[in-house]
Every structure is written in C-alpha cells, then in structure tokens.
Design brief:
The complex is a heterodimer. Chain A folds into four domains: about 110 residues, 2-Layer Sandwich (Alpha-Beta Plaits), CATH 3.30.70.100; about 90 residues, Distorted Sandwich (Calcium-transporting ATPase, cytoplasmic transduction domain A); about 260 residues, Rossmann fold (3-Layer(aba) Sandwich), CATH 3.40.50; about 100 residues, 3-Layer(aba) Sandwich (Calcium-transporting ATPase, cytoplasmic domain N), CATH 3.40.1110. In chain A, about 50% of the residues lie in helices and about 15% in strands. Chain A has 26 helices and 27 strands. In chain A, strands 15-27-26-25-16-23-24 form a seven-stranded mixed β-sheet, sandwiched between helices. A six-stranded antiparallel β-sheet of chain A has the order 7-6-8-14-9-12, with no helix packed on it. In chain A, strands 17-22-21-20-19-18 form a six-stranded antiparallel β-sheet, sandwiched between helices. In chain A, β21 and β22 form a beta hairpin. The longest helix of chain A has about 40 residues. Chain B has one domain. Chain B is about 75% helix and about 0% strand. Chain B contains two helices and no strands. Chain B is elongated. Classes of the chains: A alpha+beta, B mainly alpha. Chains A and B meet through α3, α5 and α6 of A and α1 and α2 of B. Chain B: This is Cytochrome oxidase maturation protein cbb3-type. Chain B: InterPro entries: Cyt_oxidase_maturation_cbb3 (IPR004714). Chain B: Pfam families: FixS.
Chain lengths: ~775, ~45
Amino acid sequence: MCCTDMALAYVEAHAAWSEANTRPSLGRDYAAFVSRAADGAARAEFAVEGVRCAACMTAIERGLADLPGLAAARLNVSDRRLSVTWQPRAEADIAAVLAALEGLGFTAQPFAPGRASDAEAAEAKRLIRALAVAGFASMNVMLLAISVWAGNVSDMPPENRDLFHWIQAVIALPAAAYAGRPFYEGAFRGLRAGRVSMDVPITLGVVLTLVMSVVESLSGAAHAYFDGAVMLLFFLLIGRVLDQTMRRRTRACAENLAALRSERATLAEPDGGLRDVPLTELVPGARILVRPGERVPADGLVEHGSSELDHSLVTGETAAVTVRGGERVFAGALNGSGALTVRVTASAGASLLDEVEGLMRRALEARSRALVLADRATRLYIPLVHAAAALTLAGWLAAGAGWHAALLDAVAVLIVTCPCALGLAIPAVQVVAAGALFREGVLLNDGTALERFAQVDTVVFDKTGTLTLPESTLCGGTITPAALEAAARLALSSRHPMAAALASAAGPVEPFPGAQEAAGLGVRALVDGVELRLGSARFCGAEAESAAVLAAHPDASVICFRAGEGAPAAFPVRQALRPDAAEVVATLRRSGRRVLILSGDRSAAVEAVATRLGVVDWSAGLTPQDKIARIEALAGAGHRVLMVGDGLNDAPALAAAHASLSPVTAAHVSQAAADALFLGRSLVPVLAVLAAGRRARRLMLQNLWFSAAYNLVAVPMAAAGFLTPLIAALAMSGSSLVVTLNALRARATTPRPDPVLPDGGKVVELPALPSAGGVA
Amino acid sequence: MNVLLLVIPLALALGTLGLFAFLWALKSGQYDDIEGAEYRVLHDD
C-alpha cells in the first residue's frame, strides 16, 4: 500500500495547485527544513512522490550519491520518505537534492516532521519493546508451566515443582514489571484524574495474580499462575500495538500529503527582493505577494493591487469577490486575475478563522463527552467484575471456608475475567476496518468514528467542493471547435483558475508562443496577424454575450474569447457535480436516510444542484453559525447526522455533527475536524464509510457479546474453585483468538454500485485507487 | 535431575540472547522500513 500513490491521484486531480508548485521558483529559503546533528552534519527529510518499486529506491539512492557534500541518502519505502544526511560542516543544499530528484523523474518536497510524530514514534517503539519482552516471558514461562501441569498428573517430585515455580517467578516478575508499564501508568493517570479506565482491572488482575502465585509458590502449592499474568500482558499489548500502528500510518500519510501540497508563501522583502518561505515562517506584519492562480496563504489586509478572489474553500461562495487595497483577505481564497500585496495580520479576534475555531472547540468538547462503545463496555464491566470477586470472597467465608481458600477463589475470578478478549474486541476491529477503508481511499482520523458512522440516519452535504468537484469545468455554451481550441491554447498561458478549466476542455493542446498575460485582464497573443484575447468580458468587449450566458447559467462564471474583431464568445465555467453524486444521493435516500444540502453559496447556485440531485431540503447563504445551528437542531430532534464538507465554514459543523467526512482537498481546519478524509473525484466513499461503520459496529458488538458469554461460563467456574491454571490459559488464549479472527471479517470490501453520470447515463471510470497491499 | 539445572538456564540464556537481538534490531532502525528491507536484501553494494 502506498500513501504517495494516493497523493499523486490527489495532485493530478488538482492540476491548478500542482501547476503552482512546478512553476520556476524564486530563490527559496529551506533553512527551516534542515536539522543539525551533534557533529554538525546537516539532515533533512523529503516526502517523495512516485516511488513504486525497488528500482525507484535504487535509482534515487544511487542518483543522489554523487551530489557534493552528501554523506548518505536513504529512502524509506514504507512511508515514501527520503532522509538525506550531509557531511559534517558541508552546506545543506536542498535545492540541489530537489533538482537531482526532478532529473530522476520524482517530485519531492522537503518535510519537517512534527514533534508530535517524534513522541508517537517513541511510544510505538516502547510498546513493541514491551510486546517483545512479554512474548519472550510468556513462551518461557509456558514451557515451564506445561511441565508442571504434566508433572501434577504424573510423578513430578514436589521439590522439582517448586524449582519450576521459582524459575517462572524469576522470569515473570521482572517481565511483568517492564511490559506492564503502559497499563500501570494508564491506570494511575486515570485514577488521578478521577476516572476508572480499563487499565485499572488489568493492573489489578496482573498484580494480584503475581502476588498470589508467589504466595502459593512459598507454600509449595500445586498451582501457580505466572503464565496467566504474562500471557494476559502479551495479548493486551498486541491490541495496543495494532491500535498505535493504525494511528501512526494515518498520520504519516496525512503528513506526506501536507508536504506534497507544499504550502508556501512569497515573502516581499523590504529591499524589494522576493523569497519563498514555508508557511510556518510567516509572522504578523510580514508582506507577502499573492500571484494570480495562487491561494492566499494567510489572513491579512491588502496593501496594493486589486483582484477577484474565489472564496469557495472559505465560505462556499462560488461567485468571485473583488478586493482592493485596505480590504481583508482570508487564507484559502484562490486569487483570480491580479497580483496582490498582502500584509499578514495577527489572528485578531474578529477574523473568520478565529470565529470558526471558537465554534469548533465548543463542538469538539461536546463530542468528547459522548460515550463510545468501549467506554460503555468498561463502565459495565468494571463494577460487575469487582462485585463478582467480592461476592465470591464473601460467599466462601460465609460457607465456612478459610481465608486462604476464599481469597484464592476471589483472585481466580479476577484472573479469569481479565479483559483479554475485551481488550482486543474493539481495537482489532478498528484496525482491520481502517485498513479496508484505506484501500478504498478513505483515511480514518479516529477509530471510534466507525461506530458513529454506523448510526447515521441523516446526511448533510456542503455543496461547493463536496458535491461539486473542487476545480471548475466548462459547462456548455455554443462554441465552434476551432474557437474552443484557440481559446484553450491561449488559456494555457494564463494562471487564472478559470482558464485552467478552459485549457482542460479541449484535450491536449500546445500554448501559443509569445502569449502575454495582461495582469487583471486576461491573456493575448498575436497569431497570423490576428490578435486573440481571452479574459474578462470587458477585456474582450463581450459584455452583451456575457450577460446572455449568465442569464442561461445562473450558477456559472464567465470567461470570454475574441479573435481579432470577430464576434466574441462567452464560455460559462462552473464547478461540475462529482461524476457519481446523483447516484450516491439516490442510494442514500433509498436506504432510508434523509439528505440535506447546507451551503454558504448563493441561492440560485444551490437550487440548481439540489434540483439535479433531487434533494428537497436545501438552504443557501448560511454562515458557520447557521450551519452549526441546523446540525444541532437535527441532533436535538434525535437524528444522527453525518456532515460531509470541505470549506473553512464547514469546520464547526463537521465538529458538531455525530460523524463527519471531508474530501482531501478540504481546508486544513476542516481536515482536522473531520473523522475521515476521502481521496479522489468520486463520492462513493460516503457510502463506503457508512457500510464499513455498520459492519465494524456489528463485529464489535459480536465480540463484546462473545466476551460476555465467555465470562458467564468462566466466572461461575472460578468462583466455585474449579479454575486450574491450565483451564485459565486455554480460556484466555481461546477467547482472544476467537475475537481476533472475528475482527478479520471487517476486511470484506463494500460492493460498489456502478457510478452513473447524472445526464449521460453512461458508466464512468473510477479514479485509480491505490493498489491493494497489506496494511498491518 | 541435576541436568535440569544446566539445561534450563541454558535455554533461558539462548532465549534472552534472541530477545536482546530483537531489541537491538529495533533500536538500530531495522524495522523502520519493512517494505524497503525486502528489496535491499537483493542489492549487492
């Protein structure tokens, strides 16, 4: 499996953005990406796109070896990252590495791994070390334990049995002290915060088992339970490691995508120079240049220039907004026609982003208070187990058994109920289901989201960028093929996002040599003595045609073309529906779910989309507050809402909804708020997550019921005093195995309905999804 | 039965050796790139 292949699909889908990445760049400042080791050797990491096989790895590593000053280049094929080390005191020339990779045919971006991922990697290693120790200990203790069990029914002398028990103690005690630390620490953290987590019964079970086994060994008894304690830790650690692996993989993918998006800003220096810097280096007060076709990298005030901004990623509004000096611009807006100089402002309390973040925090707090299945199971399980143990103790004492026998049976209850199966029941399903979703192009941010997806009965869509594709396409218009081709060739020389729609409409064409972009107006070129113009209605003198086209397509924008003094032509351009949007919406409605559209765009545009999809419930012109209010009203009426949205204005609604989904082209804030991200042009992932959620929840419930049934059999046996270590070991490993095997059934893939074009009725090709490889 | 006192520590010592070999391999980053490792083994440089 390969996350960068997905990144590639994503970048291909957004040619307008990648075009900005590949343009000849200014003197760029990479200092932020270089870290220095103790001996002064510089080191940098790159996210590399297009690595598919072993040959790529060799090509990259050999190709870079000849660069001056380079000490080592090593490609990590699993997460598509290249780590480059320079010789001590050598200049870290990142541009040379990028150029060499470019020459080899790979696109790469320098990459600064965050602190969070370092801490996570350290935690993953700690868990694997604990797992190794627990595995070693359970193998060796089991070896000795089985000898004792066999000896107990044959002729083993008591002194040999005691020796074997003491050897087990020597292995199990230090191993449990080391391997159990993640659980002990979790239990203490929870208790200090006043919570009883699942770690508490685990810790209690392990410690009591070990103490009792030592006491029994001291008295020369026939049974000791060292094997049970270490085996329990081993199984539970498997669950923890799986859980951690899933989260780390998702994060690595998300980080690669972010790096390949390469969000940078062009800093205008006081001396007039221009410098490309990563976004993290932008400080309030900095002056940045935003060229046509680029996204505004940070909130700010316009100092010079005027332009038309496309706010579809910010507010969902598709009509361009004209900005001039002194006006406020928001990060994420796409610059249309003119270059802007923007002074970055500190995140003042009034900015849109702050408002959105405030709403989001409130919504996320509410969500974190919601109980997931695992919490509910823990809440039921802990008092029941402890009550059963206490009852056993009291019962035996009342029946006249001695303290020793009564305590022994009470501890046996704790051992046999130890949440082996319970500890694996939910993470195992989450890991397998997340892996299956990953192969369908969905990145799950949060494992607990699966069960929330299962309960969804209402689906709310944002329009812009969610039901529609994030980039514009040509939509009709009466144009001769020759004029379309000429306009498309001209459009190739423009960076305006609407020109990109035109350029892709005519198939592969070459740009005209000598075409010139007239800032803020359009592009012109002299071909065979005739001046061709492409741009605004005014630039082409096409006001009348433009108005006619706008009347026919109220939800479109217009780009005009004129050859010499001939009749001008106006092309309507709009964001087309995703190819299978109608089919997906129809399937959702057939399955009995209510479908709504909540958009920030103007009414005419939303109505056009809602009519084509057959959606009756739609609202337009909504602010972030309106959206969150609508979602909360639906939740108040008892509906479980799935919010699908991409804009900055959707982020609070995404956080407030019962479950949420974003396309990978969404604004950063929205990506962080969503439970899952989907890649590609298709809307089918909406159906895939709902199906995967239902399947996962069913399997989790099966696993939980199985654990409950297992306890119903095992607890009376233990309470009655029939529990030998052999039975405990069989029950524990048997139940864990059943639960894990059951979880593997979450791998089944969703049957995919054939996506059908809403108008043409013909089946379209799905975007290439990443090849199916192993996940865990 | 004296042979037990020789054989059991021997078995444990071998097992411990394996455990430490794994921990060393983990620490030296040999599990960081499992997909790449299967190709690297075929290179002769």
